[in-house]
Task: structure prediction
Amino acid sequence: MAELIQVHDRFVRGPKDGRKDLDLGDTINKAYEDDMKQMERLAFMLNSKQVPIKLTFYGNVKKGLFFEVECEDAETKEKVDKVLNKYKADQDDLFNF
Result:
């Protein structure tokens, strides 16, 4: 997977709060990391043409996770971008009460 999907992680994680029972900062950071890993897996699965894809993640814990998809094949880029946007919207909806 590493050859076809290049990930640039520029996401700024929040500080750990140091609580022994439940470190909220660490929990939030892990949730963002899990989302990035899932988005990388989705990009890999959608890459039927086996072309190089570059995913850049940026943002921070206060503003949220953002991403950019770069790919020379326009069809693949559009497909990956659409699915990752849908995934991100679904994840964001989990926290909108």
Summary: The longest strand covers residues 5-12. Strands lie at 5-12, 53-60, 64-71. The chain has one domain: 5-93. The CA atoms of residues 76 and 82 lie 10 Å apart.
